[in-house]
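Run log // design_07
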């Protein structure tokens, strides 16, 4: 264990980011005694070999635990994933790192030695769920300690955004937590976990400017799934005033194109039929390791940005082109795209490649220009609507999805009405609707008042949901009689029906049966199959269909584009 004098400059640097702390006792007195001991301890330099200047120190290289110290017994890890798809993708990175170090994975709580909880901090509600889970894990840990298996002590690690937000405070608040690791410190996890073997707690919440885990090949948690997620970038520079993400995930950085394309190829070889490229704002993707002409990101009329546009390198349109060319039979989706930088090149690639999903996520957040200004979104209602028109023209038949927040600081009833009218106008196929939740550290926290009462937020949220469902019902009913290309994902547990998703990522269910296959015979359907399905009934969140024949993306769209699908003659 590394002892750093509290007075040293390095202590401050280090304790902010990575620390290992003793958990000899939970009482404040014992902690105080320990702190005093630490103050008298030897200087850090005595522990660091070959390091001359503290400012050049890479915290991951700090030998606070010799790298030879590894866990002896194969430990079993139980993963809990909360929050967004990025968290799922991060968990697969974590699992890859731990698997390499000899850890095993379990889905049975009783077998677990380590519980790793991938956390979300975006709204208070997300954090409440995690505190609730921690209550359960604390009890589990206590029961194990009092059982005949007490030699197999349970360790609890909190990873991700909530870990980054609360840092050491997390351990102070929840004594059962042993490890706290932020989104950029997953390579350090084996050592952090090894530290806990001797009863200490370990924290590493250092944010990085360049960590993309590009060289870590994620290991999928569900190996049977025909769909997968790939992180193409990390962090966010947008600083929307309501959002905690720039503080928990750090500065924006892109992963090199080559490593992304390799991963897509690897997934295609494993039989994956759909990948979703993930980033907080995929359209600002730049692989600057590639030298190309210095072409800045172009911002459309009516849009502004808070950060300096990147120049040179490969852009998202280039990446999308390369990724979609890996396997024309693999469907490509991506999320999220900030409306402020949606270049025509990206739209051209989407419309020209049948294997790129025709559902675009264009998070509006509000329909009121005044609210959008307070949110620092960089566009007005009018600019957003103009973009919607441009997208619809460039990609016929495109579906749109959105995120919307109601009850943001200062939102009046009239301003909320503008959100409703925007939803009426745009016809979203999918929407993620949230009541505003004030987060510490954000600009809104510092500058505005969370002045919309909770019951008003709740009422506005209900009204948004009600409108959204009504609109979806109508949109989905318009699909009745049309034929969609559906990727079969699995079966519906309750009914045993086949479940898949169409080009707009809408859920489609239908009965299992033998249907004509490409080779002239007939066969049943299985996950990973592309099937032409005629839609016969619609609800707000699911379409019901009749399967017609097995197909492929290339075959289905040989003579017809998604936008003209109504013209398709049924098989
Ligand atoms: N309160 C409510 N919703 C939020 N989001 C982000 N921050 C907040 C917040 N403080 C929503 C935005 C974002 C989505 C991922 O979560 O709509 O697009
Ligand atoms: Fe948050 Fe805005 Fe970045 Fe999205 S673009 S992650 S809402 S700061």
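design_07 sequence
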């Amino acid at each position: 264990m590394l002892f750093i004098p509290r007075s040293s400059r390095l202590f401050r640097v280090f304790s902010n980011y990575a620390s290992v702390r003793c958990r000899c006792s939970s009482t404040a007195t014992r902690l105080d005694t320990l702190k005093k001991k630490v103050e008298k301890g030897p200087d850090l330099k005595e522990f660091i070999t070959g390091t001359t200047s503290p400012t050049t120190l890479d915290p991951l290289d700090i030998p606070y635990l010799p790298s030879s110290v590894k866990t002896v017994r194969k430990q079993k890890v139980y993963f809990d994933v909360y929050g967004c798809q990025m968290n799922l993708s991060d968990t697969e990175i974590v699992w890859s790192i731990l698997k390499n170090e000899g850890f095993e994975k379990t889905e049975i709580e009783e077998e677990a030695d380590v519980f790793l909880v991938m956390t979300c901090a975006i709204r208070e509600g997300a954090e409440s769920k995690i505190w609730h889970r921690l209550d359960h894990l604390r009890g589990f840990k206590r029961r194990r300690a009092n059982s005949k298996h007490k030699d197999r002590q349970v360790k609890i690690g909190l990873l991700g955004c909530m870990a980054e937000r609360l840092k050491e405070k997390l351990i102070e608040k929840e004594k059962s937590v042993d490890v706290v690791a932020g989104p950029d410190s997953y390579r350090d996890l084996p050592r952090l976990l090894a530290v806990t073997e001797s009863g200490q707690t370990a924290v590493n919440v250092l944010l990085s400017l360049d960590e993309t885990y590009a060289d870590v090949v994620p290991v999928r948690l569900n190996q049977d799934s025909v769909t997968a997620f790939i992180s193409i970038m990390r962090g966010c520079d947008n600083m929307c005033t309501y959002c905690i993400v720039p503080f928990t995930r750090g500065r924006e950085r892109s992963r090199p194109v080559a490593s992304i394309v390799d991963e897509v190829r690897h997934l295609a070889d494993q039989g994956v039929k759909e990948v979703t490229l993930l980033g907080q704002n995929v359209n600002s993707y730049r692989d600057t390791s590639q030298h190309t002409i210095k072409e800045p990101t172009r911002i459309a009329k009516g849009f502004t940005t808070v950060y300096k546009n990147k120049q040179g390198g490969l852009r998202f349109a280039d990446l999308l082109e390369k990724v979609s060319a890996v396997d024309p039979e693999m469907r490509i989706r991506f999320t999220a795209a900030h409306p402020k930088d949606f270049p025509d090149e990206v739209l051209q690639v989407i419309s020209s490649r049948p294997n790129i999903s025709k559902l675009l996520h264009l998070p509006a957040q509000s329909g009121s220009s005044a609210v959008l200004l307070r949110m620092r979104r960089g566009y007005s209602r009018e600019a957003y609507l103009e973009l919607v028109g441009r997208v619809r023209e460039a990609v016929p038949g495109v579906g749109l999805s959105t995120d919307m927040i109601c009850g943001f600081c200062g939102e009046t009833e009239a301003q909320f009405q503008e959100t409703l009218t925007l939803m009426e106008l745009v016809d979203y196929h999918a929407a993620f609707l949230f009541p505003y939740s004030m987060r510490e550290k954000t600009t809104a926290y510092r500058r505005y008042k969370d002045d919309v009462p909770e019951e008003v937020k709740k009422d506005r949220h209900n009204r948004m949901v009600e409108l959204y469902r009504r609109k979806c019902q109508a949109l989905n009913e318009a699909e009745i009689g049309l034929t969609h290309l559906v990727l079969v994902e699995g079966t519906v547990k309750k009914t045993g029906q086949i479940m898949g998703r169409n080009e707009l990522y809408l859920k489609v269910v239908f009965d299992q049966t033998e249907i004509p296959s490409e080779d002239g015979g007939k066969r049943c359907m299985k996950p990973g199959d592309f099937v032409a399905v005629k839609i016969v009934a619609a609800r707000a969140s699911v379409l019901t269909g009749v399967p017609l024949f097995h197909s492929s993306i290339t075959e289905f769209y040989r003579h017809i584009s998604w936008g003209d699908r109504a013209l398709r003659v049924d098989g």
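Confidence is low (pLDDT under 50) at residues 1-17, 24-28, 40-71.
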